[in-house]
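Worked example (supplementary).
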Amino acid sequence: MKISPEILNLVPYRPGKPISETQREYGLTKVYKLASNENPLGPSPKAIAAVRAALDHQHLYPDPSHYELLNTISKKWGFSTKQLAIGNGSDEVIDLLTRIFCEPKQGVLTSEAAFNAYEVSSGANRATLHKVPMAPGFRFDLDAIANYFLSHPETDIRLVFVSNPNNPTGSYANKKEVESFLEKLGNRDDVMIVFDEAYNEFVRAKDYVSAQTYMGKYKNLIVLRTFSKIYGLAGFRVGAMIGPEEVIEVYNRVRKPFNVNDLAQVAANAALQDDDFIERSQQICWKGLDYFYKKLEELGLPYIPSQGNFVMFDTLRDAVKVNEALLRRGIIMRPLLNYGFKTHLRLSVGLEHENTAAIEALEAVLKEVPSL
Ligand SMILES: Cc1ncc(COP(=O)(O)O)c(C=O)c1O
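After joint prediction of all chains, the assembly is encoded as:
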């Protein structure tokens, strides 16, 4: 059997440990998963009702044109349906964009500690990933990314991924940084710029701007959004892309016709229209984050202020050991060794009792695992 080296060298994406697996391995009944930046409220009740009502026509293939969903997105976000496309999670869109824009050995550019899917999709599509060091504060250095692109023509970079806010760091690039970045790389014919805004709805920073604002100004700009976070539909797998019409047209040729199943389309369509649920989800996230900040400060653990629904913090200890001890107590957080962080963990905001349980467990574990 001969497998191409790029594929063999792929480092698999490490998802959060499932609750059922943790229960089995540790003999626990009560387990809280705060590891995957999911919505602790569950799916929007409107989405659940719509999915129930749609169950009886699941013998039919889904709508390959995503007509209803695209029209609702168009009304809500203010773009023509020709500028919109749907994926099986934004993960699928990331993968297909890499396939569309990069030939083998061409380059993909992002930051160190950027969302891991860019690395996996680059490898899987035989492109070469280039990572630029972060700015202090674990922030994307957009200036350095633009300069890297401009000063390394030999790398043949075709695609730039900016995760804003970024996962797992929770940090963000502000309006001034985004605008100056777009001024440098915008409207070039040789590179596509992708702003991944999976956590867009959780942002509280006043100087944040969605790259959506600049869609009319730059023809090489794409924005990704997801229904997995604030809309509470991670299990359904729905992501969306806003982009130039030519890109949307090509994407729709490359994707599988039935990439998003009917229940997922129905759920996303209903969730988009559930404004009350979105507001409750924001409130629970912000309250939870403020609670985590306060407790982490009391515990003397440094953290990165987050614009997502999670916080990355420094345990000041071997994070693998801390994580293991937390698992024994039924708390699933996310170790970040695959991002090169040996002492950090990422904690997603849960319901109030889950947040309290996580902090209590952490407090106990800090006494068990020696600091470095
Ligand atoms: C920055 C970022 N982009 C994209 C995704 C993928 O989302 P989806 O569930 O839509 O594939 C995630 C998921 O964690 C994420 O953190």
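Two points are worth noting when inspecting this output. The pocket of pyridoxal-5'-phosphate is lined by residues 37, 89-91, 115, 163, 167, 196, 198, 226, 228, 234, 239 (CB under 6 Å). The CA atoms of residues 43 and 232 lie 4 Å apart.
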